Amino acid sequence: xxxxxxxxxxxxxxxxxxxxxxxxxxxxxxxxxxxxxxxxxxxxxxxxxxxxxxxxxxxxxxxxxxxxxxxxxxxxxxxxxxxxxxxxxxxxxxxxxxxxxxxxxxxxxxxxxxxxxxxxxxxxxxxxxxxxxxxxxxxxxxxxxxxxxxxxxxxxxxxxxxxxxxxxxxxxxxxxxxxxxxxxxxxxxxxxxxxxxxxxxxxxxxxxxxxxxxxxxxxxxxxxxxxxxxxxxxxxxxxxxxxxxxxxxxxxxxxxxxxxxxxxxxxxxxxxxxxxxxxxxxxxxxxxxxxxxxxxxxxxxxxxxxxxxxxxxxxxxxxxxxxxxxxxxxxxxxxxxxxxxxxxxxxxxxxxxxxxxxxxxxxxxxxxxxxxxxxxxxxxxxxxxxxxxxxxxxxxxxxxxxxxxxxxxxxxxxxxxxxxxxxxxxxxxxxxxxxxxxxxxxx
Length: 443
Ligand code: JFZ
Fold this sequence. Notes:
The chain is α/β, with parallel strands linked by helices. It has two domains: 24-341, Glycosidases (TIM Barrel, Alpha-Beta Barrel), CATH 3.20.20; 346-434, Golgi alpha-mannosidase II (Immunoglobulin-like), CATH 2.60.40. The protein is built from nine helices and 15 strands. It has a seven-stranded parallel beta sheet with strand order 5-4-3-2-1-7-6. A five-stranded antiparallel beta sheet has the order 8-9-10-15-12. Strands 11-14-13 form a three-stranded antiparallel beta sheet, with no helix packed on it. The longest helix is centred in the middle third of the chain and has 20 residues, at 179-198. It binds 4-nitrophenyl 6-deoxy-alpha-L-galactopyranoside. 4-nitrophenyl 6-deoxy-alpha-L-galactopyranoside is lined by residues 61-62, 206, 209, 258, 273, 280.
C-alpha cells in the first residue's frame, strides 16, 4: 500500500515518468471549449486587415516578393514605410460602423515583416521611419471601442534565414536553415510577445501548407499558447490539413474557407475570409464588390452557420480608402435594421442558395430573400413545425400558407422592401433551432 502511495505521489510530481503521450494530438483538457467557440460564432462579422511596407508597390503582400517586386527591393521597402496618417481609432471605428464585432490584424505575413516591436528580428516597424507599435495601438483602440482584437501570424517566414524556404511557391530547402531554432526561439518568442502584450481573443494562423511545418510543431505551439492563455481561440491553419474542414486530427478550433462561402455546417465552427476588393493588400483601382454582393455574402455565410472575416487593405499613408469605408458603412446601416437576423443566430435549416438563405434563433426563422420570385417563395416542408405569423423585419405582414404536401408558400410583394436582402421573420410554434438540415438545389 505504501509503495502504491509513493508511486502515485511520484507520478503526480514527476509527470515525465508517465508513458509519453502521443505528441500528435492536442490534449482534450486544453482544447478551446464549446462555450468559447459558441461565443465566437455569435459575433458573425469581423474585419481582416492586410497591410505592410508592400503597399509602397501596391502588389500582393508576401506573394509578390521575388515575383512582381525583386527580393532585394521588397526587403528594403520598410525603410520607406511611413504611414503618417495611420489612426488606430479610425480603423476600429470603421469596423464598428460596419457592424463588425472583431478585428484581425496581420502582425506578420509571409514576407516576415513584423508590425510590432519584436525583440526577435530587426525586420520590424521600429526600424521603419514610422517607429510606432501598430499592433499595440490597434489592440488599445479595439479595447476602447468594444471590438474583439485578434492577430494573424503565419508559421512560414520567407525572410528569416533559419526558415528553410525563402521564396513564394518554392520547394527548395536551404541546408543552412535551422527550423527547430526558428520554431523554438523566433516563433515561440514572437508569439509569447504577442499573447502576453496584446492579449488577442483569437490567433489566425496561416502558412501551414509548406513542408518545413509539421503536425508535431503545430501540437507543440497549440499547447504552448493554451498554457499561456487557456481561452485564446486558434484557427485550423496551425495544424496540417485542408483549410475548409475540421477532422479528428485537426489542430485548431475552426475551419477557414478562403475567398468562398463555406458549406452549411451545424457541427463545426467555420469562418470564411474574403476580400472587399480582389487583393488582400491595397492595390490602386482594385475592383470593389457591390453592396449587394457584400450583404448577400454575409447573409449566406450566416445562413451556412459561419462567420465572415471581411478583408480591407489600407493604403500606404495609413488611411483606408474612402469608398471602402463607405461600402462598409452601408453594410453597417443594413445591419442596424436586420442585425437581429445575423448576430447570435444559427444558420440553416435550409442550405443557402442564390435565391434565399435562412437563419434562426429560438422560435424565429429568418428568411433572407435575395431576388424577387414571381408571386411567392416556396420552401420545402419544415417537418413538425407550424408557422404562426410572418412579417418583413421593420415592415409589413406577409401572407403564407402550408400546402397539402407540407411546402410553405410565402407571398411576396411586387417590390421587395430591400433591394439587397429583404428579411422575413417567421414566428414558429416551436424552437426553430431543433429543425434538421434541409438540402436545397443551387437556385
Ligand atoms: C493565405 C495567404 O497566403 C494570403 O496572402 C492571405 O493572407 C490569406 C488570408 O491566406 O492564402 C493562401 C493560402 C494558400 C495559397 C494561396 C493563398 N496557396 O497555397 O497557393
